[in-house]
Amino acid sequence: MSLRIVVTVKYVPDATGDRHFADDLTVDRDDVDGLLSELDEYAVEQALQISENSDDDVEITVLTVGPEDAKDALRKALSMGADKAIHVEDDDLHGTDAIGTSLVLAKAVEKAGYDLVISGMASTDGTMGVLPALLAERLGVPQVTLLSEVSVEDGTVKGRRDGDAASEQLEASLPAVVSVTDQSGEARYPSFKGIMAAKKKPVQSWDLSDLDIEAEEVGLEGAWTKVEDASARPARTAGTIVKDEGEGGKQLAEYLASQKFI
Amino acid sequence: MAEVLVYVDHVDGAVRKPTLELLTLARRIGEPVAVALGAGAENTAAALAEHGAVKVLTHDASEYADYLVVPKVDALQAAVAAVSPAAVLVPSSAEGKEIAARLALRIGSGIITDAVDLEAGDEGPVATQSVFAASFTTKSRIAKGTPVITVKPNSAAVEAAPAAGAVEALAVTFSAQATGTKVTGRTARESTGRPELTEAAIVVSGGRGVNGAENFAIIEALADSLGAAVGASRAAVDAGWYPHTNQVGQTGKSVSPQLYIANGISGAIQHRAGMQTSKTIVAVNKDAEAPIFDLVDYGIVGDLFDVVPQLTEEIKTRKG
Ligand SMILES: Cc1cc2nc3c(=O)[nH]c(=O)nc-3n(C[C@H](O)[C@H](O)[C@@H](O)COP(=O)(O)OP(=O)(O)OC[C@H]3O[C@@H](n4cnc5c(N)ncnc54)[C@H](O)[C@@H]3O)c2cc1C
Ligand SMILES: Cc1cc2nc3c(=O)[nH]c(=O)nc-3n(C[C@H](O)[C@H](O)[C@H](O)COP(=O)(O)OP(=O)(O)OC[C@H]3O[C@@H](n4cnc5c(N)ncnc54)[C@H](O)[C@@H]3O)c2cc1C
Prior knowledge:
Largest sheet of chain A: 9 strands, mixed
Radius of gyration of chain A: 22 Å
Distance between the termini of chain B: 50 Å
Structural class of chain A: alpha/beta
Shape of chain A: globular
Largest sheet of chain B: 9 strands, mixed
Largest interface: A-B, 83 and 90 residues
Strand order of the largest sheet of chain B: 9-8-7-10-6-1-4-5-11
Strand order of the largest sheet of chain A: 9-8-7-10-6-1-4-5-11
Order of helices and strands of chain A: EEEHEHEHEHEEEEHEHEEH
Strand content of chain B: 25-35%
Number of helices of chain B: 9
Oligomer: heterodimer
Number of strands of chain A: 13
Radius of gyration of chain B: 21 Å
Bound molecules: flavin-adenine dinucleotide
Order of helices and strands of chain B: EEEHEHEHHEHEEEEEEEHEHEHEEH
Strand content of chain A: 25-35%
Helix content of chain B: 25-40%
């Protein structure tokens, strides 16, 4: 038996950098360093663990939709231990929204061939947390999402989803789309050996025509949503800062009372 | 007037506050029609009517509890077909976003998530989002199809606006995908008696500075003196001092209370992502250089083990 896992990984601007918007109200990617979305490292980690715990022949492909530099995200995932990578890159993809991204990812996953798709819980830039559900809808397979624990056995994926009101045990037959949270287990660091090995692993590049997608279906023009304005939040006016000299708690109570919180 | 569908988040018929907030926002763009699903759906009608729902579409079936997400998408799609709404509003919970996304795809529409405000516009509703850890504010609209928008808790005031709230049965046919993901077990979370974190007017949080699970009693005591919810930073959660369900931040809950009190929390970008839209921010931290102080309306540089108990005592005294 063999198990084909596709892990979707996003290349995002570093959250600790000065993220901002370009003139066309898309994310400015030139001014801030990009990296593999940290939450997708958890998805790669779970794919590796499923592989390590399996008697089957497991092949892990990492897939990204993004600009030229997004190859860095793929390299990172390969150095963690994934087997091969697919980069969907096309100038016409600039400005694609969630619905459009799900189209591209779904077509790419189908073309790659899969039994299991593993995604992160959310990207660290758009942070919508909708792509895995959209992918499942497009592919017509079960979504087993937001798992803090996941396992695969005999063609079935099982997991635990910790929600607000309850913690749920979930189960679905493969093929399926899974997403994992940052509670699923610390992601490993690439070893030196892993980093060297990654340089020799195959990275395929596909464009829109490889996926039979028309330019009008994606990009800024094709987007189902339109950003009309983006403005930096005004800096907070400097607050009052008091050093505790024994009465700090009482002073704070006074402030809270003055603001009618007490 | 155009109808606006509002997806109802309820627990056995008790409507959660974010849904009532959605009814306020829905009235800005049309007449709210609520969709309540699952056990107790019919019992939601009174609360929904009181807050402006002209109609309440209900449906109960075991599928809603036994399978993940898709049965609810099927039902909402049936409601869209029945009503032809001007927009669909869904509370921005993890599940709400997934339901909304799949619905948008099915009905050929765009989706906006985590709106913090909503206004009627010439070309349809305009949503305000607070992005990049709340360092930017964007205004967006749906360019194609029926707007599907998820709205964060605490984005609007709950307003009473009595309406008919006539209950109507919704006819739902489940899709082949509905039973794809089985819920094989469910452990309900124990209630602490404190307000729900995302809905609370005041949140009191503790971070690594709290230095131990047992010390969270200090944070809880302050929270209880204010009738607040308790939050925690990821460092405190990862250390096992407080449950993950109480984590505030990018991978935890995003809160937007009237008052947020951060104790022993440095203010990392991922923490700020979950609390920066709080109206008033207060911090207690012994390091005057901690980045959290850049955000505060009022900050105390001091040891939380001195400041927090004194504050709690003073609040109790003042409240008598
Ligand atoms: C600040 C901001 C706000 C936005 N708001 C909206 C909006 O309201 N509506 C809208 O339609 N679009 C919006 N977008 C665009 C949208 O975020 C992206 O189009 C998109 O990639 C999908 O959403 P996400 O990144 O939030 O992914 P999420 O749904 O949060 O991502 C979940 C997982 O999907 C996978 N994934 C996501 N994107 C990719 C990718 N490109 N390649 C490989 N895997 C991927 C990853 O595994 C990731 O962990 C916004 C973007 C930004 C930067
Ligand atoms: C992908 C990703 C997602 C993340 N998601 C989240 C998230 O959702 N939420 C989150 O919180 N973090 C998140 N983080 C982690 C985040 O980067 C920080 O590591 C974390 O917020 C730090 O928690 P802290 O402020 O409690 O701890 P620290 O940064 O260690 O700060 C502790 C503070 O306590 C102060 N202190 C110590 N003792 C005392 C005392 N006795 N009295 C007063 N002050 C004292 C110190 O001066 C210090 O400022 C995420 C990180 C990543 C990479």
